[in-house]
């Protein structure tokens, strides 16, 4: 016996199903028998038919042979009968005063016929019926045969055991899956072990696989983030350590070293701040109850971006319609205006960072009334992104192929994606045919006034 079956036998649920369905099956069999006994016509045993019809014919035929051919003719006919039938027929001279009678009389369990032989002798033929009787078998209530009781007991146990095993096996697999997951094995999957099952337990196993896959992805992303954070912190910390060493070796370079310490400290502060923002996006944004105007928020960010883009010779074009002038009314978004502003700033600043001098960054916000959503597009005329990196630029600490341009840690677009998704939207990147990159953000309407 396999281990799952042994575990099932020891389980309390197995015994509940076994005895519950076993008793039910037994009661069904017994109830069916009682119903048959109460409402159906009683069967007529085959021996009863022999007593009523065949045995009288047998005695009458023996008397006819005796009357026509005498005792020798009767003996020849009886010799062809089976041994048990020959033993049941008795022939003797009739008592004094007996007369031939063509009728077959019955006295208790004996059939009697008087026949006249050709020589004038009256013979008595008798057929004993007691050997044909089958003794009644002992039975339970309502004359229930022991076979029926045994069928109910054995059938109920077999049926309920098979049903209990069928139901318990997937539950045991689920339990082992949870145990494996609790032990750290996030790669455990239960769907293949369910085979061709198409019931609620199979659905539960598939839901378990989905949960395990998401948990495995979350843990992998956490580990990857911790690795990337430690890598990003190592460089500024190493430079800080070197600056302290230079001060000790050359006390006259204190001023230069302090400037380096201040710069590296600022970089660390920026990195920690972006990490905190990323954490806030994942934990706080969905629970915020603020409502804000996306169109006005984007217009404000564009105004700040124009101020920043001026020294680099980059033009920022805006195609943002104020929400108040929209035909559909003031369409608001529920969530965190602060985090959404940070996300939009990161997208526009990313476009500014990779735009050449004299380039143009276009920002537009449209309304898709059929789909009930806002569509934000940011287009630049920079070098674009290799096609194989379009899906990964939104991951933390991922930089483009020309990542040395400008300063940053590759967290801006990751923050933007997490913020947009926390607000029920989506963000995607695509290379433009004319050159450059286009970021598209879609956000659902929250309410219409």
N-to-C order of helices and strands: HHHHEEEEHHHEHEEHEEHEEE
Strand fraction equals: 15-25%
Count up the domains.
Answer: 3
What is the CATH T-level topology of the largest domain?
A: Heat Shock Protein 90
Strands, count: 12
Largest sheet composition: 5 strands, mixed
Structural class: alpha+beta
What is the CATH architecture assignment of the largest domain? 2-Layer Sandwich
Integer-rounded radius of gyration: 50 Å
Residues in helix, %: 40-55%
Overall outline: rod-shaped
Low-confidence stretches: 1-10
- CATH class placement of the largest domain: Alpha Beta
- Report the mean per-residue pLDDT as an integer: 76
- How is the largest sheet built, in terms of strand order? 6-8-9-11-10
CATH homology group of the largest domain: Histidine kinase-like ATPase, C-terminal domain
Please, how many helices? 10
Straight-line distance between termini? 68 Å
